[in-house]
Structures are given as C-alpha cells and as structure tokens.
Model the fold of this input.
Amino acid sequence: MTKDFSKFAGWLSFFQIIHWIWFILILAAYIFYVSLTLLVALINLSFGDVLYIFPVSLLFFCRFFFLTRIFIIIEKKSEAVPAKIVRYWLFQFIMEVLVLSGLYLGGYLARYLRAADSLTLFVSGLSLTLCWYIIWVIYFRYSRRVREYYGVNSSKLF
Done:
C-alpha cells in the first residue's frame, strides 16, 4: 500500500491544526490582555504603561495577520504557497525579534518582572520562535508531501 502524497494530509494537516490552536490561544491571550489592561486603566494607568501596551499589541496584530494569511493560502494548490508560508514565518520572526528586543531593551519587561526573569523570557521567547521557524522551513523545503501537493518545495530557506 502506497501513500498518496498529493492529498492535503499528514504533516500539512498537523501544521494547519497547530496553527488553528495557536490562533485561538493568541486570540484568547489578547482578549485577556486587553481586558486586564482596561481594568488596570480604570484604576491607574501611567504613560509608561501605555508605551508598554503598544509593542505588545503590535506583536499580537502581526501574529493575527500572518496566521490569517497562512489560513487563506494553505490549502490552495499553487507553486507559490510554500515560499509564501516561509516568507510569512520569516516576517513574523523578524517582528517578534524587534518587539521583544524593544520590550527588553526598553526595560518594560524588567519593570514587571525581575531582571533574571525578563532575560529568561526574552531568550526563551526568541529561542522557541527560532526553533519553530527552522523546523517548518525545513519541512516546506524538503518534504515530499509539500512537493507533491503544491508542485514544488519552497526554494527559500530565508
């Protein structure tokens, strides 16, 4: 019995399911974050807190945008899809690096956490994002199912 690699299944389905779960978790986290921020705003909100809200909201917006773009194109049988997905992940990774760097270097994380905890959060956040990016880029570059379903693998690693 041979596998039919031309169907949308296997790790591609897993990729899609994980992204749906990720999307729901990000949406729930953002709703919780906004609710908590508004609650704190009713009590007392300083200008520094407002500056902290902007980059975090930008990070959530970027994640929503790129996940939505991936959902729109993932099941289309087009040779451009694997390269677009890799590009979306690269842009999302760059945005996360910029926002987390800004939060860390700006001292916003240290304001709410101990210095060691803020460094741990910064490094672990970037490490997990980088690992996730590398795993899926390699998959879209070398997978037989991706090649059979879309017609080509992603020619881009970055």
In short: The CA atoms of residues 17 and 46 lie 40 Å apart.
